[in-house]
Backbone:
DNA sequence: CTGAAAGCGCTTACAG
DNA sequence: CTGAAAGCGCTTACAG
């Protein structure tokens, strides 16, 4: 039988006692790059294994000032765009030795949450929900905690941001739909106060204008599945219904397609073309086969991780606003331009 | 102008100095239930606000032995079942004063990850991916950290588990399909070594047997979208194709439906009935309208949170295996039994 | 390379 | 109710 297993956690002092060395030596053995002789290291490792020792990450964080914790703020996980970014970003950060502390936000409590985050001494913050208040942004800047807003930005904020080129994306969609011969093109907006919606919409209108068109009708879906369904009902209740709809994100586009097909008996794309934005995995499912604008290929995740880690590791936080290329992904939910 | 804002974090000692009180008094002011006179509390709160003080959660965790951190292990976030459970469980835990530390696992490194988790002094672990090795389970038990396996179980493990009644769920599906007049009922399995798949399959076979039927053919989808598509191709390539398919989860069922309809030109449910398991939100999307078995209504999230918090707060960890009722959700992807 | 000692920012008996 | 002091488990100069 081995030693009696203790019921209280094993500390470096326990290991030191067991191996007959100093506590500092134990600590060095578990600190990459610290100087310990091979003989001592081996003896300590053996003792540690026997006792089942594991360094206390909290104590390490305290004394070193490095928690290796990154906070991620997310509002909803039902739009597949966010779980996927959460998964990919988490893997990247884990691979670099960091861990993700997850914060689900409720509408409106942003600052309260950020305050809680700060208590955990996180080394960086990713905001994939709403935006940081200017007050908190200032506080983060003061303490040198980098903040990256993911898929959103605030021009006047000191926080960095990573977005796709939403203006160009919106423009691409307008161009594609007009060239596809559509003449009554509607728009289902997301949340009106989001930078992403603003830019997609602005680019879309710009694209329409380039062809001498304007939006046929604009309704608000609020980025929710239900909201988008209601918006679609409004849009298609009038007799002169649109012949195409640009929906501000895929998650809403699925709902719009459901309503168009199931409630109005219209075919997509024969009667109505639908285009979304994000290119979430479901967009390629045959049940929807949604033409959309890709945000994943563009490296938003990589860029977010890079900005964050660079600023953490150099301890130099300065605002960066990365805008990545938008790419139209043509599938079957919208009529194609001639010759394409 | 207010005081110069310090570049170094504000500590309780700073606040104490500023307010001319002891550091203990500051600590008490921020400890719910500790005794401080209203006058002193007010003075301290004022000083804290002026300096922008926030208690250091790590230091608090260290000294009190309570990190208020719960680890959640997840493998993939593309099956909507998991993001949703992550969202709901996180909200519950946050509301109770805990935070979720997220760990994305790679295939096979389970134990390495759990070891890393333990370093963070988490107070509880939720495993929504694979299962805990018996060694680590023993270690968690030793240190008194409750572990709940979510949507899976290991009979011989000391870890608790929360599942739906997968055997009954499988049986319900078989019964429903046979009563719907199907005679060649196929099965698309998930991962063969998962308890969930095992039980759903066993219940399904049992249900078939009750009607004197056996499975028409069984293929393996491995719980992935691609794997399920390939499985469906195998299943439908033979001339005497099935007239119904039970797919071990919704995520795979969508893929199966895509293949059936897009590649084999079959109609659902006119030519083939499809039934899934989980009742993820997409199952109710009109593009699929999937008949399935609900796992959400059954309170798996609530039960998981309850077990976890109860064991943390009473410091009494004992194995619990909660099995919640399964409920068939009838939609349009499967032919209905007569008179239903 | 090694050990004794200080200190990270807190909580919590212990006296008063 | 309040303050001085010990201590949580580490890392990291500082001597040797």
Residues:
């Amino acid at each position: 039988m081995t030693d009696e297993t203790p019921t209280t956690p094993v500390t470096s002092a326990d290991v030191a006692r067991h191996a007959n060395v100093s506590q500092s030596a134990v600590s060095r053995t578990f600190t990459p790059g610290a100087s310990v002789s091979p003989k001592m290291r081996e003896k300590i490792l053996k003792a540690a294994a026997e006792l089942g020792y594991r360094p206390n990450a909290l104590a390490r964080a305290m004394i070193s000032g490095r928690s290796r914790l990154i906070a991620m703020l997310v509002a909803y996980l039902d739009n597949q765009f966010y779980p996927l970014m959460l998964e990919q970003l988490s893997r990247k950060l884990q691979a670099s030795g960091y861990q993700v502390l997850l914060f689900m936000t409720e509408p409106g409590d942003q600052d309260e949450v950020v305050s809680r985050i700060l208590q955990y001494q996180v080394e960086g913050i990713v905001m994939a929900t709403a935006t940081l208040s200017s007050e908190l942004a200032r506080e983060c800047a003061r303490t040198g905690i980098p903040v990256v807003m993911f898929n959103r930005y605030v021009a006047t904020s000191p926080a960095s941001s990573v977005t796709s080129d939403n203006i160009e994306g919106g423009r691409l969609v307008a161009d594609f739909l007009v060239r596809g011969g559509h003449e009554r093109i509607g728009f289902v907006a997301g949340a009106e106060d989001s930078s992403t919606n603003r830019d997609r919409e602005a680019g879309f209108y710009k694209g329409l204008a380039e062809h001498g068109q304007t939006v046929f009708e604009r309704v608000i879906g609020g980025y929710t599945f239900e909201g988008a369904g209601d918006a679609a009902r409004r849009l298609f209740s009038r007799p002169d219904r649109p012949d195409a709809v640009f929906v501000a994100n895929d998650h809403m586009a699925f709902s719009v397609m459901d309503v168009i097909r199931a409630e109005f008996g219209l075919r997509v794309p024969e009667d109505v073309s639908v285009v979304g934005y994000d290119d979430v995995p479901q967009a390629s499912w045959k049940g929807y086969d949604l033409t959309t604008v890709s945000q994943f290929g563009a490296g938003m995740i990589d860029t977010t991780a890079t900005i964050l880690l660079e600023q953490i590791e150099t301890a130099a936080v300065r605002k960066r606003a990365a805008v990545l290329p938008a790419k139209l992904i043509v599938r079957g939910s919208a009529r194609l331009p001639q010759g394409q």
Remarks:
- Residues 9, 11-13, 23-24, 27-28, 31, 34, 55-56, 58-64 of chain A lie near DNA strand D (CB under 10 Å from a C1').
- Chain A has a mean pLDDT of 91.
